[in-house]
Amino acid sequence: MSPTLRRDAVVLLGALAAIGIATELLRSVPAISTAAVALVLLLIVLGAATFARLRVAVTAALVSTLAFNFFFLQPVGTFAIADPQNWIVLGVYLAVAVVASKLSASAQDRARAHLAETLLASLSHDMRTPLTAVRVAVDNLRRPLDDAERAAQGAAAAAELERLTLLLENMLDMAQIDAGAVHVERQWVAAADIVDAALAHVRQALAGHPVVVEAGGDREVELDPRLTSAALSHLLENAARYSPDGGRIVVAGRVEGDGLHLSVTDQGPGLEPSEIEHLFDRWYRGVAGRRTAHGTGMGLTIARGLLAAAGGTAWAENAPGAGARFSLTVPGPVRRTASSQP
Q: How far apart are CA 152 and CA 225, in angstroms?
């Protein structure tokens, strides 16, 4: 099941449960007015419209209409309606619920279209920059150059190609996460193995930042090393992006009884308390991120998606003193390394 369908199913079940609970609570209120009942049920329908697609909200509207009729309109306990005025009440309620759901869905569509335009502009910029740099480097290599200049131009082209490769990998990872097609292959690894693989993957992004690695121990954990190191690489890339030039990045890793624990601490501006819970949201860029000309807001979302497929989690917090700390955990069986066994 795709993430969208899964979300719709969860929202629908939540809305139906909320309608049931609200109905029971409202029935216990003596002489409650039909207007009050309609407002409460309508609020639930609007909540469904906010978090899921239109068909989910319409389904919730129809179910709430049936509950409204059966439990609150005379004669109670049947779907018959004795008072002709109640037909008007019921019809107006259903119309308002459906129209409000449609308006909410339309507002979400417009917001997504504004977001898509922003993302396209960001992706276009992030792709155009390395492509331009590669073209310039190749053009320069066509001219007579001494060995040092030729090596510098070749290195520049290689660095930009690596940057472009990472961007394309991000897009492919996001597509796999959305399709629910992330494949998990578990192996026995140490914390240092994951850290080393992640550092090698984003070595270009970390240029200019001293990296301190605190990973060791005599235990291994069984998990998917590719997914975990890829998630860590996104945290490292994020730390490098928002750290000042020369800012130190500390990578800590350990295997405990419940699995793998990793963290990345930077010396950047830190996190606004109000944005911490949104940092892993799709396309979200924090206050510091909006001041930069690059970045699509995909990295942290991809990290959390890859970890979710592997059964892990990720979170962010402000580090003691200054900077931000991004942490992840992946549960799994733990054993001592072969070298540590007697």
A: 34
Tokens of 161: 């190609």
Name the strands in the sheet holding 249-256, side by side, starting at the edge strand that comes first in the sequence.
211-215, 249-256, 259-265, 324-331, 313-318
Token pair 């072969």 is at which residue? Answer: 338
Cα(263)–Cα(251) distance, rounded to whole angstroms?
A: 6
Domains and CATH numbers, the chain: 1-181 (no CATH), 187-340 (3.30.565.10)
Tell me whether residue 273 is exposed, middle or buried, using C-beta atoms within 10 angstroms of its C-beta: 0 to 12, 13 to 18, 19 or more: exposed
Choose among 155, 163, 173: nearest CA to 128. 163
What pTM does this model have?
A: 0.58
How many CA atoms are closer than 13 Å to the CA of 150, on its beta-carbon side? 7
326 forms beta bridges with: 264, 316
Residue 265's nearest CA partner among 209, 187, 194 is: 209
Tell me how far apart the 2 most distant CA atoms of the chain are, in Å. Answer: 96
For β-strands 259-265 and 219-223, DSSP reports them as unpaired
Listed in sequence order, the residues at least 6 apart from 119 whose beta carbon sits closer than 8 Å to its beta carbon are 283, 296, 297
Q: What distance in Å separates the CA atoms of residue 240 and residue 203, rounded to the nearest whole number? A: 10
- CA dihedral 177→181→187→193, nearest 10 degrees, is -30
pLDDT digits (tens, 9 = 90+) for 78-114: 877 776 766 776 677 777 767 766 666 666 666 555 7
Return the closest-CA partner of residue 43 out of 71, 69, 19, 14: 19
Lookup: tokens for 76: 């109670």
pLDDT digits (tens, 9 = 90+) for 262-284: 999 999 888 988 888 888 887 67
Distance CA 297, CA 82 (A): 56
